[in-house]
Amino acid sequence: MPDAENTELIKRAQTGDAAAFEALANQYYRVMFKMAFKWCGDRTAAEDITQEACIKLARGMDSFRHDSAFTSWLYRLVINTAKDWFKSQNRHPATDMEQAANIKAEESAPDDKILMQQVWAQIQTLPEGEKEALLLVVGEGLSHKEAAQILEVKESTVSWRIHEARKKLESLFGKEKKYG
User: Fold this and answer.
1) Which of 3, 170, 111 is nearest to 179 (CA)?
2) Which residues constitute the domain of residue 23?
3) Structural domain includes residue 109
4) In terms of domains, do 73 and 36 share one?
5) How many structural domains comprise the chain?
6) Which of 61, 88, 115 is the last residue in one of the domains?
7) What is the pLDDT of residues 134-175, one digit of tens each?
8) Same domain for 12 and 78?
9) Contact predicate 111/118, CB 8 Å
10) Sign of CA pseudo-dihedral 9, 15, 17, 18
11) What letter does residue 63 receive in the DSSP assignment?
C-alpha cells in the first residue's frame, strides 16, 4: 500500500489507535525484517532487530512528521535500531553472509550463489556510510534522493558513497562481475 493510502492509518496510529498501529506494523514487518536482514545477514539477529524496531515504532509514532515518506522514516528507524542492537550486543555485522546471499541467490546457479556470498561478505567490510548507501540504493532499489533523505545527507554524498563502494568492490572482484 503506497504511503498516500497510509496517511489516514498513520494519523490514527499516531493518536493511539491500537488497531491502526497493528495494521501498520503487520503491513511493514516484512520490509523491516528484510532491511534488518540485509544489514546483519543473520536471521535470528534480524528478528531481534525487527522486534526492537517495532517497539521503537510504537513508542515513536508521534515523531513521524509527514514531511517525508513513511517508508523513508521507517528505513532510518530500522538502520538506527540495527546499529543500536549491534552496540548493545558488542557485536559487528556478520561476515559470514551465506544467509543473506540466499535471499538474492536462492534459485541461482551454484557459481552465482558463491559469488553473491562473496559480494555480501565484502559489503559488510565497507565503511558504514558506503554500506548504508549501497544497501538502500542497490539492495532496496531506492533512488539516490530517497536514500539521501533516509541517511540525512546530500544526494551527492549518497552518489559519492556508492561510487566509492563500487570502486572497492570492483577492485576485489574485477569489473566483469556485476553486483548492482
Assistant:
1) 170
2) 3-88
3) yes
4) yes
5) 2
6) 88
7) 989 988 888 999 999 889 999 999 999 999 999 988 887 765
8) yes
9) no
10) positive
11) G
Looking at residue 76, its amino acid is: R
Residue with cell 559470514: 96
pLDDT tens, residue by residue, 10-60: 999 999 999 999 999 999 999 999 999 888 878 898 999 999 999 999 999
Three cell numbers written together for 89 = 550486543
Residues 82, 102 within the same domain:
no
Measure the CA–CA gap between 128 and 148, rounded to whole angstroms. Answer: 14
* pTM: predicted TM-score of the whole model, two decimal places: 0.72
Catalogue the E-assigned strands of the chain: none
Q: Are 179 and 119 in contact (CB under 8 A)?
A: yes
For residue 120, the number of C-alpha atoms closer than 13 Å in the C-beta half-sphere is 26
pLDDT digits (tens, 9 = 90+) for 66-75: 888 888 899 9
